[in-house]
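# nightly structure sweep
# worker-07 picked up a monomer target from the shared queue
# config: single-sequence mode, recycle default, output format = structure tokens
# input follows
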Amino acid sequence: MKTAKSSGGAAERVALVLERLLGAPVPLRVRTWDGTSAGPADGPTLVVRSRRALRRILWQPDEVGLGRAWVAGEIDLEGDLEDALTRLESVGRDIATRRHLTPTERAEVLRAAVLLGAVGPAPKPPPEEVALPGARHSKSRDKVAVSHHYDVGNEFYEIVLGPSMVYSCAYWDRFDDPGYTLDEAQRDKLELICRKLGLAEGMRLLDVGCGWGGLVIHAAREYGVEAVGITLSHEQAEYARKRVFDAGLSERVDIRVQDWRDLTDDPFDAVASIGMAEHLGAERWGDYARALHDLLVPGGRLLNHQIVRRPGKGRAGRTFIDAYVFPDGELLPIGEVVAAIEGGDFEVRDVENLREHYARTLRSWVTNLEAGWDRAVAFAGEGRARVWRLYMTGSALSFDAGRIGVAQVLAVRRHADGTSGFPNTRTAWLGAR
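# output follows
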């Protein structure tokens, strides 16, 4: 890493404050509102546009404070964002956790803040930050949480997700093919799910958290099933219904705004839960598994696809993703997910980790967002676009490092005699149609 002579001014003091908060030299060049700069000469530059940014970080010296300044546009980055986040990780400390300063360090930080004119009351969080009302994981609160994430404008999601309008991790069947597109990988994800569920003409499929209708449309068109898709997002439901109508599938696909706890349908032959269970919370998983079990015929299959984390204690305190992306979201280790599904009287038949696939998917979404940046800002606002750019870039690095993964768990409701109805070999039920 090349070093450059500091030009003094505000940049030198801001770099000192950040170094004390990080507990290590800042691995980025810092440029401040007065035009001065300090730090490494190579690589990305952290641009601190105002004293307000520093005040936010001093009041909330963790990733939420940094995130607030980022979303508000008070700090920015010149250069590659992924490179910058990788360099910050290289200091060997989790920036989500506040560092306890020594008395000497506190005095240094306070003196720098006074000289910079950054002392004052805590600024209000940007409007993109959410604080949810009501009891955690109540129906009303879950609806607000889902609306915060998904009801930001279908036009925005068209830019990020591309023409497929399929969310969650794609399945890159030709992983090393540079010409293989995101839309192709999302189509192959839908196909993989349908094959794992053993869909065939005349079956009934339930998609819990159906998004913009990609899976139910694919299953009805390609496999001849009748499908019900439920979501808590009105914007998603309206968009999905139009797609169903345009595909000529209205007689076979029903899109509803409905909570999974309110389902009273006759049993289905298959249930898909794709990128939905992250919103559940650990305390709801047992109820969810039992409800899905009761919604299946004997021999019916469940495919659960969700982000998981490493075993051990989860992260303490509020994170940027809690505050801006997935309020009330909770990641579980894969072992706890399997245990919860088995606790719902399912037999788990297959578990597949697609961690590397999600990292590639996220980078494709970031590419889409950056290519359509001006339109994304016009549709959803600059703050929202900045949230998504940071969240997706950081998440790709987390998948790379194995801090999080994504798993598909295939399970079956056994018949009364204990049989599953599965073929005796994996290739028999996973092979191409």
